[in-house]
Amino acid sequence: MRRTSKLTRVAVGVASIALAATACGGTSSDSGGDSDSGGDTKGLAIAYDIGGKGDQSFNDAAYAGLEKAQKEFGYKTADIEPTEGETNADKEQRLASLARQGYNPVIGIGFVYGPPMEAVAKKYPKTTFGIVDSVVEAENVASLVFAEEQASYLAGVAAAKATKTNTVGFVGGVDIPLIHKFEAGYKQGVQDTSGGKVKVISQYLTQTAEEGGFASPDKGKAAAEGQIEKKADVVYQAAGLSGQGVIEAAAKAKVWAIGVDSDQYKQAALANYKQYILTSALKDVGGAVYALAKSVQDDKPLTGTQTFDLKVNGVGLAESNPEFAKIAGLSEAVAKAKAGIIDGSIKVKTE
């Protein structure tokens, strides 16, 4: 039976990680070596998902965790950008290169690193690997997964309380099970809060990640504009870099946007639109990166599936925008829903 380490509250926390990244990270090159090397030193490396650094969301949250670990532990670090049109073989080579150079842990940011990491982890048993948003069955891999549906439920509560047209929108980057979790939780939160009176319009930008669903702000903008034309006055996006286009469209139309992963109200690159970012469904990718780095630093590396949910503050809902507290009943409704999810009286769907 595969060992699963117990996640402790001290290792994570949405509020404890600053989710804005401003510094530039390094890159790594292949330094040679064989499959028995790696893991001899403690240094943290992350390989970004589609969209790369600067998405003001998923990847930037991961970088914040790397930056925190670097400052606290004095780690050498590397953060590597993806390349357009790359294959699994390219990803495998990237992970292997980082392991050969002695980085430990090595973390793949995104489900796309699943098959490559499964192959590389076997070749470098001395290295602790981490993968975000996927499960890889290997003794030296920590699978860092999140209860996105729980944060999205809270976003749905917020949307139902904020809408004046009784129509809200959801824009998903790619039509895949991971993003279905965001949509399912959001729809359930909207319906439970409104008693079925609020309509949810959903759209996915692409069928595959290779088509740019997570990396095309223009696609996100067009989708949001279409939903706004259909009277949606709150639009929630789970679309990575494409979500910036959703937020831009909402701001232009002077309706509410709901961000994702990071507290997008606080992102400098989105400052021109911040007054229209009602809230963000938080996913503490930075906390997960930091937690794995800390476990290696403590010589107690996490392995197995690590689930970050509301109980451990691994997901949540931002309340940074002062307008959030001004909407009648919103803060109370979110607090009640959060308590219900944690105590089990509210069961959130994933599909």
Describe, in plain words, how this protein is organized in 3D.
It is a lipid-anchor. It comes from Streptomyces regalis. Pfam families: Bmp. Strand 6, helix 5 and strand 7 form a beta-alpha-beta unit. The chain contains 9 helices and 12 strands. The protein has a 6-stranded parallel β-sheet with strand order 2-1-3-4-5-11, with helices on both faces. The protein has a 6-stranded mixed β-sheet with strand order 7-6-8-9-10-12, sandwiched between helices. The N terminus is likely disordered. Helices cover 35% and strands 19% of the residues. It is an alpha/beta fold. The protein is globular and about 55 Å long. The protein folds into 2 domains: 164 residues, Rossmann fold; 159 residues, Response regulator (Rossmann fold, 3-Layer(aba) Sandwich).
